[in-house]
Amino acid sequence: MAAASSFSAAFYSGIPLIDLSAPDAKQLIVKACEELGFFKVVKHGVPMELISSLESESTKFFSLPLSEKQRAGPPSPFGYGNKQIGRNGDVGWVEYLLLNTHLESNSDGFLSMFGQDPQKLRSAVNDYISAVRNMAGEILELMAEGLKIQQRNVFSKLVMDEQSDSVFRVNHYPPCPDLQALKGTNMIGFGEHTDPQIISVLRSNNTSGFQISLADGNWISVPPDHSSFFINVGDSLQVMTNGRFKSVKHRVLTNSSKSRVSMIYFGGPPLSEKIAPLASLMQGEERSLYKEFTWFEYKRSAYNSRLADNRLVPFERIAAS
Ligand SMILES: C=C1C[C@]23C[C@@]1(O)CC[C@H]2[C@@]12CC[C@H](O)[C@@](C)(C(=O)O1)[C@H]2[C@@H]3C(=O)O
Ligand SMILES: O=C(O)CCC(=O)C(=O)O
Ligand SMILES: [Fe+2]
Question: For the Fe2OG dioxygenase domain, which residue ranges apply (predicted)?
Fold first, then answer.
């Protein structure tokens, strides 16, 4: 397993904090998406019981013997995975469940293998996804309003659509025993990458490890907060805003003594949806930085890439000289 090249950075105190109920939320969200592509959300309205219930059902699942968990894998692309991320050679100190948000679409009836009480995990996942999807929709509407786009559902309709190709993931990072031996070096739990979709909504327990990369290339550690959500701008939203919003590069480093459990909703558009910079956001002579593509085309290309690759390069327009 790879070690991160630097010591884990000190906690960063500059993460934008958005109170979803505040009147200035939309302007602050736009600023955060332009500067970092990342922010923390409080007063989000998602009941803590839903969050705790999913966390405890997931913890029960990950405590099962490996042989039982493996009955729900390997992820192809959905299912239980251990250390291998994607199918192109990436590895991390992590085990996970990767699910289609339309639970009935998950292959091979693997949902029925969800531990001792499959129904409980299944309904915890369903309730959680539906609450978080609504919150993502609300945030995407605030983004459109903050950008002064007339059609306030221009982004939200993509993830709220019945055909939306959204994904849900629960990651478990066990404490990393090799850490002591390596004295102060952190192993990679989940290697650096950007998320391909429109928006990612992350919630974790109180274990540190999540880092984002700033524009200057420095990595900063995000203080964990189990009662808040963290929002990542994904590649597709960067394209729709013609680069105005930044798809944030992030990674997870392991912890030597505590396990980390995170749950991430990746809000993606329907497969047939055409993704391109919105004409209404182009100012004056501004040129489109990206070629139009369907989400299906982007996804196919993304799933053939390595985690750390810049997946937008093949879709960039060459600037005219
Ligand atoms: C290495 C890979 C894993 C990934 C598919 C990919 O080929 C490149 C993008 C990766 C990523 C990152 C964000 C999400 O965790 C994810 C589910 C996604 O949509 O894109 C993963 C993919 C995965 O784990 O299958
Ligand atoms: O587990 C985490 O905290 C983040 C993982 C992540 O970035 C991902 O699954 O795409
Ligand atoms: Fe990610």
Answer: 163-269
